[in-house]
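In keeping with the milestone schedule agreed at the kick-off meeting, the structural modelling team has produced records for the first pair of proteins. Each record is given below as a sequence line and a structure-token line. The laboratory manager (R.T.) confirmed that both were archived under the project's standard naming scheme.
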Amino acid sequence: MSTNGAVWFVWATVVAAIAPLANPYGWRLYAHLFRYLTDSELLSRIGEFQSFDFHTAGAGQIIATVILGIAGGTLALLRGRYEHFLLAMLVSVLALRSARVLPLAALLLLPVANGAIRATFELPWRGYAERLRALDREWRGYAVAPFALLAAFGLLRLLPVGFPPEDFPVAAWPHVPEDARLFAPDKFGGYLIYRSNGTRKVFFDGRSDFYGVEFLKQYSRMVQVRPGWREYWESYHFSHALMPPDFPLVPALEQIGWRPVYQDGAAILLARGGT
């Protein structure tokens, strides 16, 4: 890496470290993140910090991204771009260890892989790409802007936008009473916040760092219907519960008198009906 390149990386690191301090909490934001990311007991209970299940449907694209990232890092090493190699290996290891790093892998590794592959092989469209770059330099990118806007507009019209109804309580939402004291798991909690524009208070949502280890322990005990779950459940005085239909808690609540109010393939809404 050249001296100019090293200086650029140093300045980028300094700016990236200092810029987040411009927030209402100052350095305490870093302290909060440090405590959160070093709390192994907390992270062990959060699925997105576990390794991604590469056997799930649609995992092929993620597998291809990781493979391309590792391949790009290897080619970068062969070309003497040691900083790209180290970045690719670091992010690849983190992505294999934690599903939460996979989006970061796509953002960082694919550009590295693209540059390394293009520089290593004489691809048949390389001359065409160089001509496009020359045109872009001449027009300063303005010529591409209309095409990019048209493509974005077309994609928004063609592709479905919003929460997939097969995974979130999209159809169940109108059936939830406004005054309900509602239980919902973290995945549904985030959707409820979005759907209500932040006006509905939820029991749990995906911001697990705000809830703490003890809450997650009790939450796990409750949703897995382990001994002592009902005492914890009753302490919250829920009037309704919104869950996926295959949640272990669903038959347990029905056994103690809760009744279904609405159900589809993505969610079931139960109402308190007994003791």
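The second protein of the pair:
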Amino acid sequence: MMTSAVTAKSEPRRTIFDELRAAVERALEGKPEAVELGLVALLAKGHLLIEDVPGVGKTTLARAIAQAVGADLNRVQFTSDLLPSDVLGVSVFDQRRNEFVFRHGPIFTNMLLADEINRASPRTQSALLEAMNEGQVSMDGVTTPLPDPFFVIATQNPQDFAGTYPLPESQLDRFAVRLRIGYPPPAVEQRLFQTLHADRVADVPQVIDLAELVTLQREVQRVRIDPSLANYLQQIVHATRNSPAIAIGASPRATIQFSVAARARAKVRARDYVIADDIHDLAVSALAHRIRLAAQADGYVPVFEEAEATVRDLVARIPVPL
């Protein structure tokens, strides 16, 4: 009896974040880093950008996160002929009431999956700007708040793929985190084609509801960050503004969202305080998509890997506080 009691006490306590991570990984097996970054973006009340080649699980990750937190998910396939009204909604004339009535578009949901967002025109992409920043939609002089929580998960194909439009800086700056999923490990891929599971998201259990999600998001705001670590984070951001390799550095919005993401990572790892690793390990995912390299001034559009390498080099040059 004593042995079992000691064993029970020595077992690590399973947190709600462990349960969330395990639930999402049922659908996206073998990609713990991508799952954690997705949860970090959600808890930070930011938005998530997933860039990768087709078929690696971008949509699966979005659907699994929504199911794990009990959120309504609307999916919009972005194409070159998609109009802003197809996303936001449209005013139609109601003959019975003799007035125009606004019909909500798919953006009025807790989670919006903007699939292949860079296949839509810049005009349609810009329709998301107000929603992602202010949590509201303005149409025909009327402003309508979006549901709370509101979370955009956008997927995009690599920029050199045919039929894509580069996302403008203002759009990129509204994503708290950008990630790539990559190909699955060989053992996982073999299991996938052997089992031929029709829909792995169906196996994802709901771990929390939306009210609990909002509570967790508020708790993230209370995670402590030491002044020395706050200075470390700010030094990283300032380095993107002072580097000759970078034409446009990270914005103040990026600084704020970076700090919230670091707090969210600490919370996901069952801490109520930020450590240096939270900042160091998130820097590339939080900042690389928000900078404009100097090479772009000559009309060259670099791939995100070059921006990532630049940010990674800057971070390596900044001393980590002890």
